[in-house]
Amino acid sequence: MSVRRRAYEILEKARAGDRQSRTFDIFIMSLIFLNVVALILETVPSLGRPWATFFHGFELLSVLVFTVEYLLRLWSCVTEPRFRRPVWGRLRFAITPLAVIDLLAILPFYLPFLGLDLRFIRSIRLFRIFRVMKLGRYVRSLQLIWRVIREKRAELVMTGAIALLLLVLSSSLMYFIEHDQQPEQFTSIPATMWWAVATLTTVGYGDVYPVTPLGRLLGAITAIIGIGMFALPTAIIGSGFAKALQKPYTPLRTCPHCGKPLDAS
User: Could you give the domains of the chain?
Assistant: First the structure.
């Protein structure tokens, strides 16, 4: 077995009996968990300032490990049949969802060297939280969530389109009903969408609310519809989970030539 092929097997999720790959998986998952903890604690003034040197050093070490991991994945991915071409195969690998997450996990560290605006850098550093998404490669439950969403994507898109239609319709009607009475609150249809979102999701912040009888009637109807509307995605995903959990777990098979999923049958 070539060194490149063995490196690819170690970097990927461990197979049964592969202790080296399993040890690497545990190490990466532990490092991801510690990174999330460090990111949270760094925002606490009583901890972030006195331990700034420690957090910075840990960040350097983590970025070094994640960078080496990402480069090794690019180097070894050509041993997989669907990525076998040296250039095009690596490009195909680089745009896969998990590879994009790996890149986002290290990208904020290198952006300051490109001479970008410091205010933009401070905001983009929040992308370090993407490191927690790297767990999706190793945790089966996260893979199950993605599989259910992918299988139910048509139904979820449909409910999302209906929710968007209700949002536009309710905000438009409320604007024409309440604008004359509250011109400073319902200034435009886009501004009224804030009220529609808060009402449809049944959050009801109370900062913007109708005062006319017709407006209150529309608000009540919108709130009632929102309860049922936003329960639909929950029911769709819940049924998908129930169906997926009833089936025995089998790893997703892919075609060795095109990389497309194969039918389990």
Answer: 3-138 (1.20.120.350), 153-246 (1.10.287.70)
